[in-house]
Amino acid sequence: MKISLPSKLVIASRESRLAMWQAEHVRDRLAELYPQCVIEILGMTTRGDQILDRTLSKVGGKGLFVKELEVAMEEGRADLAVHSLKDMPMELPAGFTLAAVLEREDPRDAFVSNDYASIEALPPGAIVGTSSLRRQALIAARFPHLIIKPLRGNLDTRLGKLDNGEYAAIILAAAGLKRLGMAARIKVVIEPEHSLPAPGQGAMAIEICEGRVDLLAALAPLNHLSTAQAVTAERTLSRAFGGSCQVPLAAFATIEGGNMRLRAMIGTPDGLRTATADITGAANAPEALGQKIAAALAQQGAAAILAACKEDLAEGT
Ligand SMILES: NCc1[nH]cc(CCC(=O)O)c1CC(=O)O
């Protein structure tokens, strides 16, 4: 098959070190495939990067990190955008599509601390930093004696706040630390049994304008089938519950020989109420599996948990 590409491609990216690493990774892979093509990276600041004093769930959610990049593509200033899939809304705005999902890095959460070896070692009252409601709920459920405080900003900012002594420990995605060569900061990776990852965690995605059929074939070699199947199941579940980051929700799929194991959790931010499910099915029917686990969570009382989360928000807590 002959793929005809424009002679120049522009990749839109946020300007954080992790986002830039990811854009450069995609640039390098494309340069290998299409050595004749000139590939540039357009770094951009998004609203999500500017608002650092409030928890994401309160200021408008995931769309904040992708909007500016989409506008650049719409206006022809960029051809594709590279994102952490975890930061992408469950429903893309009309006119945009995912052209490829790259092979997943370590999907697990990581415990990072200068003074403590593990979350189990933290004394009562120790302050743990995370702004993810999912991580908050999971920690509160297992370790009610710990205090969880919000922690926003890019990876360097978050690590800086740990090093300042503002927190006894922080929880970060292992993937970001590994990509940036900071795996040594990880005291211990937390197994999915104890901290079930967020939908899409550890995976990168390439977004394009739907009309760019010329790019679809060119980007297809970057798509990693089993990662794409896993995150499709995870995101189908998230969509079934409104796809918001205002609700503690975890979803994690693993694939072995054509079979997918899909685990999920929905809970209240205080961790007092949770519903969990663990199912297996055909890896090549990820939407069906995502819907099946949504139904399993519904049977465990997910609707009441969702309603409790919404009440919390309305009260501004
Ligand atoms: N929410 C921010 C974000 N988006 C993607 C990653 C890490 C890399 C990934 O999961 O692909 C992070 C940092 C974190 O959660 O610690």
List keywords for this structure.
Porphobilinogen_deaminase_C_sf; Porphobilin_deaminase_cofac_BS; D-Maltodextrin-Binding Protein, domain 2; alpha/beta; Porphobilinogen deaminase; porphyrin biosynthesis; Double Stranded RNA Binding Domain; five-stranded mixed sheet; single chain; binds ligand PBG; 317 residues; 11 helices
Write structural notes for this entry:
- Residues 229-298 form the Porphobilinogen deaminase C-terminal domain.
- The structure is a single chain.
- By secondary structure, the chain is an alpha/beta fold.
- It folds into 3 domains: 8-102 and 203-223, 3-Layer(aba) Sandwich (D-Maltodextrin-Binding Protein, domain 2); 109-190, D-Maltodextrin-Binding Protein, domain 2 (3-Layer(aba) Sandwich); 235-314, Porphobilinogen deaminase, C-terminal domain (Double Stranded RNA Binding Domain), CATH 3.30.160.
- Helices cover 34% and strands 24% of the residues.
- The protein has 11 helices and 13 strands.
- The strands form 3 sheets. It has a 5-stranded mixed β-sheet, sandwiched between helices. It has a 5-stranded mixed β-sheet with strand order 7-6-8-5-9, with helices on both faces.
- 43% of the residues are buried.
- The protein binds the ligand NCc1[nH]cc(CCC(=O)O)c1CC(=O)O.
